[in-house]
């Protein structure tokens, strides 16, 4: 039973400066919903209600977002806006959310190590705080199902173009089915020639508690930081690691172009303005094509 989830959200968000100078990148909204709310919702939809968010300096807005705002609730009640009032109350009640601050940005491996005391000696889910998954079955639930079958660490992966493998952690191994692979190689941002496949790590994991020992033995890697991919190479000596090819679409909100694409796609799914927005897009494209 996977009971706990960890959401690393301590990155500086430098790719979105100056917008992220005073607000967390995880709070950037897709229309009217902060990115991290989608991530928390995925964990909840996967049956997890005990969530630890790894934050850093300047990330207080995340805590405020999931806390109650009594004054706002009173104002909405006064205006008889029951729909918004219910939504604000749901935010503070959707999960048991805890917070710990990463003292310095030192890589994803280091961030996850801050969860050691909270998760104890049990497997747990990890969901990156700047990555949204759009899927019928929550991607975390897909990984949980695979973990229950193999009882070992599971990593979400997706296929990327070969010319882009140097932007991701890439895995290699033996295919067990169309969606499952038993891994024998994990490389952080390899060259095109050195990449063992075109399967990239996709920001969701089910980790065994052995990962903490592996992180302790991991030195600084790419970028002078403790990389989770390097810790996996150590973990691989002790236990099997499986990759699960996700069913769904991953949106990297830390990337400006992906952020724009995600906003457009999600807007077209919103019934209240999908039709007029599509009309606007068509008219705008027609103007640019002249």
From TrEMBL:
State the gene name recorded for this protein: galU
PANTHER family for the chain: UTP--GLUCOSE-1-PHOSPHATE URIDYLYLTRANSFERASE
**Record keywords, A-Z:** Nucleotidyltransferase, Transferase
Span of domain Nucleotidyl transferase:
4-263
Task: Report whether Kinase shows up as a keyword of the record.
Answer: no
Q: What is this protein called?
A: UTP--glucose-1-phosphate uridylyltransferase
Q: Provide the E.C. number(s) assigned to this enzyme.
A: 2.7.7.9
Q: Which reaction does it catalyse?
A: alpha-D-glucose 1-phosphate + UTP + H(+) = UDP-alpha-D-glucose + diphosphate
Question: What family name appears in the similarity comment?
Answer: Belongs to the UDPGP type 2 family.
Gene Ontology MF term list = UTP:glucose-1-phosphate uridylyltransferase activity
| First-tier enzyme category under EC | transferase
Q: Which example biological process does GO assign this protein? A: UDP-alpha-D-glucose metabolic process
Q: Does the keyword ATP-binding apply?
A: no
